[in-house]
Each structure stands twice: as structure tokens, then as C-alpha cells.
Amino acid sequence: MRIRNFVWLLAAVAIAGCDNGGGTTTSSSSGGSTPTGSSAKKLVVGVVFDTGGIGDKSFNDSANAGVQRAAQLLGADVKTVDSTSEKDYESNMEGLVEKGCNLIFAVGYKQESALKTVAPKHKDVSFAIVDDVVDLPNVRSLVFSEQEGSFLAGYLAALVSKTHKIGFVGGETGPLIKKFEVGYVAGAKTANPATDTTGIKYTESWDATDTGKLMASSLFTGGCDIVYHAAGRCGLGVISAAADANKFAIGVDSNQDSVAKGNVLTSMVKRVDVAVFDTIKDVKDGKFTAGTQRFDLKSGGVGLTDFEFTKDKIGPENIKKVADESKAIVDGKTKVPSTDAELTAYLAGLKKTP
Fold this sequence. Notes:
Layout: H1 9-14, E1 24-28, E2 44-48, H2 59-74, E3 77-81, H3 88-98, E4 103-107, H4 112-118, E5 126-130, E6 139-144, H5 146-160, E7 165-170, H6 175-191, E8 196-202, H7 209-221, E9 226-230, H8 234-245, E10 248-253, E11 264-270, H9 272-284, E12 291-295, E13 302-304, H10 311-314, H11 316-330, H12 340-352
Helix pairs in contact: 2-9, 3-4, 5-6, 5-11, 6-12, 7-8
């Protein structure tokens, strides 16, 4: 997997969305190849963004970075469209097919149903979905081990917290965001079993920044000094609340460390950009295959940033501890839970460990 060729920041430490509701925008236009490798047609890439859209500095922006890189380096003609609600997904996909796209990305697990409807009708078009699995012969599923990167975020938070009370703000309730929450709690309890991790809230939205800020503010007022978010654009509200309280937020998906310099402890980066770029390159090279591709800590698909603005607040000893724990996950010594049931078993195992 090409993602292995990317230098992952934490590993280095160890050794020392466009128009709303259906409008499309062409970002770049240049010659390319079809999914079958023919040079007779342009490589035209379409992207249906999830609600929250471009500008979330998170999930959608990471996907957009991947397609824009493909426009620059691979000569792809990129067409993107935002979705104002779930009912837009199917029509947005069909609109991109009509515009001649030979590869279309569905960004977000909520597009699964629409993709299952659209993809079988256009067997000559390649599709990819981020964060869900669709088993169709012309669909590639791009999934991530978010729990592993979140484990490191929780581990670091417990090491740094002075109140020994940390919080979490998720977006919409579901199995995907549960992986972030569970990994975070497991990491915190591994670093310090006494850490209070009960401050967990869900916005049930991806774009209500005011709600994210209100929830984070209540967690800070309640004694948390670090709050991790996995809430899309809502997370910008969490970071704003951290800056106002002079506490720490932990960013997600993209590198959000610079959103509030010194108040974002780190970000749990999820390399959607690399997964997207690699898929586009496979189409251009005639190497596209359907099936599931998983991006984990070992492959560099998830991990923490390099603490650009917080190294002095974390300290070299804690940075090394996180790097060591990262290696334990990569080596298979630490098995990170991803569900509530797995978390319960994991925590029970910690209590038995001398």
C-alpha cells in the first residue's frame, strides 16, 4: 500500500466543501486515463462531500486535499459537490456521472445506501466510499482504524492532564464515532487508570459549531482540562472553547494544531487525503481494484501530529512514552478495542495486570 511510503510524524519521534445542494465545481482540467488505463479519455474525478462540507478543517477538507493533489500531480479534472442533507447523496452522484466522471468518491459512511443504488447502474464507472464497506465489483471501500490513533490521543491526554479528568465530544452517534470514543478511553486508562473519562457528549450533528462549543465549555467548567473531538465542523467549536478557557482540545482527521496554537494539544490525523490520492492514481495507472483497504497505525493511516506548538507543555518524557505505546500497537502487543464490549474486556484485563 502506497501509504507506507509516507513519513509518519509519530514514528519519527520514536527514534529521537463548492456549491450546496448539487452544484459542482471543476478544480482542474487536464488529460488523464480511464479506470481501464485507456489514454483516450480524461481522468475525471468526482467527489460527493458529506454534510459539513469544505471548510470543516477536518474530514471533508482531508478528502479535498487528496483530490486537489491529484489535480496538480496527476492532471485529474476534479469536480466536487457538497451535500446539504442525506437526500442529496444519490442525485449528487448521478450528476457527477452525467458530467463524465470515471471515478467518484462518496465521502462518509452515510452515503452507503445511495452508493448501493447508484454504482450498480454505472458499471463502467469506478466508485470509492470513505468510512464504510460496500461490496460491489466497481466500489473500493476505504476504512480506517480510528481507535488506534484515538488510543494514543487518550494516552497522551491522561499523561498531560492536571485535573485527571478529560472529555470527549462526538458528532452523530454510531459505530464509527464509537471507535474514536472507545480508543480514547482505553488509551487514557492505560496511561493512568485513575483518569476520569466519564465526560462524553454527542452533538448529533456535523456542522453545529455552537453546539460543539457549548458542550466543550460545559466539560471544561466541569473540571476537564482536555477535550478530544470527533465531530466534524462542530469540532471547531470545541477548539474555540478550549482557547477561551485556556485549556486543551485534541483535533481530529486533519492537522488542526494551528487552529488555536498552544490550545490544541495534538490532532489525531486520519489520512483520508492519502487514501483518496492513492485511489485516483490507481485509476490513472489502470490498477483500480474493488474491495476493502484498511489504513491503520502500522501503515501510517492514523496517528498523532508532531506537537508543533505544544512540545514544551508535553515534555520529552511523555512524548517518548507515547512513541513507545505507538510501537506496542504496531507490534501487536497492545490490541486496541473499538466497541463498548471490547472496551469492557480491555479494562478488565488492565485491572489484572500487575
